[in-house]
Design goal:
The complex is a heterodimer of chains A (455) and B (183). With 455 residues, chain A is mainly β. Chain A has one domain. Chain A is built from six helices and 20 strands. Chain A has an 18-stranded antiparallel beta sheet that branches. A two-stranded antiparallel sheet of chain A has the order 3-4. Chain B is 17% helix and 55% strand. With 183 residues, chain B is an alpha+beta fold. Chain B has a single domain, classed as icosahedral virus (Jelly Rolls). Chain B is elongated. Classes of the chains: A mainly beta (455), B alpha+beta (183). Chains A and B meet through α1, α2 and β3 of A and α1, β1 and β3 of B. β3 of chain A pairs parallel with β1 of chain B, so a sheet runs across the interface.
Amino acid sequence: MGVLIAFAAPILWGGVSVRSALSQTLDARRLGMGGVVTSDMAAARGANLAFRAVPRGRAHGSIPLPLGLIQFASDPPEFNPDSSDFNVFEIADLITNPPLTLSLSRPDPVSSDISIYVARDSLSIDLEDLRRIVPESSMRNGSVTHLPGLGFGFRRAFAQVAPLVHTQNELELDDALRAALRDAEPFTTRTRYGLADVGVAQGAVAFQAGFAFRALHAPAPGKGEEDEGDEDPRRNGSTALYVGAGPKYLYGVAYGDVRAVAGATTGDTLLGSGDPVALDVAARTRHAVAGGDGGSGHGKGADVGAVLYCSNFEFGIGVNDLSSEISWKITERRHVYSDSLNEFTTTETAIDREFTSRIPVTTTINVAKRFGDTTVAADLVDGPLSTAVHLGAETWMGRLAVRAGTYRDANDQWQLTGGGGIRFGGIGLDLAVASHQRYLEDKRAVEMAASLTLY
Amino acid sequence: MRRVLPTLFVLALLATGCGDRSLILTVNVLSFLDPAQVSAGYSAPGGLPAVTVDMVDQTVNLLQGVDDVTDISSATLDIAATLDNQTGTATGTLLFYAVPSDTLSPFASVPIASIPISLTPGTLTNVSTRVSSVALAEALVSDRARIGIRISLDTSATPLLQSVQGTELLTQLLATVVTKKKI
């Protein structure tokens, strides 16, 4: 019978990574504005290739100040597993929520006793605090991460080499198992407790070359060509269209995926003198790796973007990893657990089979309107598994800026942000306070970010 | 496999998960006993200073893997029974045994609970007690435990040719084991 509850283990570990896909915004100006994407935020430049061609205007460079490291250094979690204060969920929180921002408030770490009630025909598990990390619905996480690379630009053209990593996982508990773990409902006889998992991970190096340029321009009504220093289309009232495109060759370094189902079906009695649990586990794995099985992969893709300015209104669309796919020669294996033999059997079902993987498209649509020293902006970022929405505003009063915003995160939870900044010539200091739910406990926390801004 | 998976689960819960937290295992031992053993008749010849009647000897399957990753902090057993004595007079003890293996006779071990009883004709005797025992914990965190219940009587007060007879009804056998992760 103990076998039955064993399948819950991945949930706990899956929970560790569920929120890791949620990004942490370190740019205090952007965070104060709800994390919104605009063309004058250097931190958001990769969202739309056309932003590369837009004049800087008031655009800035941002240097995050990792205030959270001070807090971390003064009160680190216990890393020694032999210590009675060790709590792996605190460590997991640290991974999913690196201490780069100052934590103003956070939920208590998952920590509690676990109670198991055992009788011949009754088994219940009360995870107490741990219930909070058992998901109410399927556990989905995924991201396409473009890591920093090397690149250069010359006039309208640019070229760069950058690694990318795509990970995606969906873990689904059936209703019976979820109720048993999340709601501490007793396990019952003649019931299957199961879960299914589908995961994929691939890494590649993108060799990209492209153009970004102004494709259309009309001065503001009643104005001629802009003077030098007044060429910022965000604020000079002109109409301008900037476009960018960058095809890329993808050198696939490694690919792996798994599709697995597992379950335990109880018999007429849960516990007793027999062993009435029927166990079923089946999985299919596929993989290829440069220098190993199947070798490297080869593919192509593209990033495209456009941003239109009209009467100080900005409308941009950026599409990254458009039609991006990589061809591999994969090795496929099937793994089946035999309940009667009490062992796993692994069968190699394909070697060097042609297979094409896809890199999911990320689409960013942003709008912004600038009224003098005030900016109001919004965006929608549609990623592999979720769609995030950001709304924000900023107004400058002399040297001081006030910002506010909100965003809907990847778990469909709305968060509030706010902040301010002060500017001294070409340098400024920005602070932002924001709520978030990146912790495993799935409860709101509040963080503060700070950054130096270069104008 | 049947042992690895549950062990991993308990390990995930305890050994890495919860710092100074405990796994509290509550085992309703009574539920594992056959109905015929929960309520059973006893009969002992009179005139003997020491006679034993074995009421229960049963092996039960428990949760796998717990003992691999936990250390026992404490264990308690709540035991209660009713003795409906029809004939004879005797004094003695109601003994509870538990061992972590089905290869040993539980009655070869030291009893975990020992409850004094006094039997007189036509009387109902209710007995109960709570005991703490590491041996009990060791049995209940194992994959299988063997449970034994014995009545040990001094029937000297009953004439030789008569007997002490009645029915024993177990009403509670509830064990609570508190374990910590094994470091």
